[in-house]
Amino acid sequence: MLDKIRNHEQYEAIMKMIEKYIQKATKGGGFHSLDKKDEKDLHQLTLLANDFEKQSLRQTVLDLSLNGIVQNRLNEMNINQSTLAKLLNITGSKISKILSGKQEPDVYFLKAIHEKLGIDGNLLLEAIQ
């Protein structure tokens, strides 16, 4: 079983699993009809879903900076900045400087982020204004 939900696709899969347990409990006349294993699995799944929902809400509300947008996408893809550097074919130090605000992002960087990470170009442009 997963230890953490990292993206929306995993979240949707977990929610479908939870729904199956709910249907099984409903057919059995209530949650008391679930065996211990099912009860434990359902509990774990609901904790995972709850943690993901809290984290998603926190990220959605808090950070629309370039750093926040990119870091959120890196978390969803489960990659780090050095992997991103290889993916974009630029140095790790350049990425670090841009995301920390020490260097302005250039067109090449923004285009690469848009194409390789699938981040909306308008969102990126709004973040740097």
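the 2nd protein, sequnce then structure:
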Amino acid sequence: MFDAVLFDLDGTLIDTVPMITRCFQYVFSKYGHKALSDTDVHALFGPAESVIFSREFGDRWPEVLTTYLQCYRQGHATLSMSEDMMHLMKELHGYGSKLAIVTNKERDTTDITLNHFDLAQMFDVVVTAEDVPQPKPQPYGILSALKALAVDSSRAVLVGDTMNDVNAAHAAGVAVIQGTWFVPNPPLARGWMVADTIKVLRQLLLD
């Protein structure tokens, strides 16, 4: 049993990745960029949204970000929250585990998602890309969350879906569980636990 469970957000807690991909494709097309495949969009993921748009659109990035946020907010009408995931978080609370989010998203998009699903009260700490010097795969977000939670790295686990999550967890000295229930990924290198369903995740966290 872990004292703290840290969750990635996109593709881990909620299946937001398809919607985010569509919004990226929309803004890149709207502002005259070349058409992007799903794979092209996913290759951009990692930095915060404003960093990506600044790199790709230069001085126009604030306008692009505003358009993206409109699409992102509206896109939540197509999303749903897994009842199994919600139940698991309530169970973890009941067992006394502290919960946190560590995401590479910016605060605006993080808050849109948490507020839409009424999740903010479930988490003791929320760390976004704006709160740390560098996002995952650097360990700063995890270390910041652990400091705020007053939990040692040996008593914590990160649940995430990407190699950035795995590498950040290893760098921070915490256990990691790769979740593939929303976005199936190939096995990742090095030692880690894998959960292909939320039921398996529950077993790894509670049994």
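The first helix runs from residue 17 to 30. The first strand starts at residue 4 and ends at 7.
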